[in-house]
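Why this split exists: single-chain examples teach little about how molecules sit against one another. For that reason, every record in the complexes split bundles all components of an assembly together and asks for one structure covering all of them. Below is a record exactly as it appears in the raw files.
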Amino acid sequence: MKKWYDFLWMVSLIYLFLGLFNILFAWLGMLCFLIPLIISVTKGSKAYCNQYCGRGQLFTLLGKKFHLSRNKPMPTWMKSKWFRYGFLSFFMVMFIQMIFNTVLVFKDVRSLSEVVKLFWTFKIPWEWANRVKDIPFWITQFAFGFYSIMLTSTLLGIITMLLFKPRSWCVYCPMGTMTQLICKVKGRDEKTG
Amino acid sequence: MAKRRAEISQSDCVACGACIKVCPRKAITIRRGMFAQVDASKCIGCGLCAKECPASIITMMTAEVCAG
């Protein structure tokens, strides 16, 4: 029987749509960062990936139910630890850069950029989603930056879902890699400690 | 008697849990967020987990077991 958390794919989908109408909803995406981290640090488990990740469910739905996935094995290099940890490092650098941009807007060094940057390269005009004007610009800047990350990673996940297995994203998902690393460190500490 | 069962390469497992959801016998668990493990006594060797695994690190092995 399906449980309530089996429908979290809807939340992932709604999240992406909300960002089309009001960019401030992008802040909600922080939950996808904080919840897995809190679970892994406090419980030492990947319960978020295993049960609650709406994005993983969405890829399963698209790949399996809608038969959109080729269902082929991923290339070996993409599954390697080098790539997984490399992608996590790249993702973290880009995240820090996004925070840095937010700080520049906060300090009035840079003006608000009403664009969504796809694949960390292509700037897509997104000014219509900036509806709340009477708040500090840095709040909106962070939302644009965060939504860029969320949309880019969803698109990457969709591409690898189409080309390989439905949940291929899970193999190189930076949050998945990071939480597994936390669990491994915790597991090792418990063994030695 | 030969029995087919799933074997997981634990060093390569990303612990995503995709295998858990398809296992009809609930024979797979994730050990402390590190890797998946199969309860050999429950595994019926259907191969659904191997098909599902995005990292393709589950292989189906045939082993001789004592009957009774």
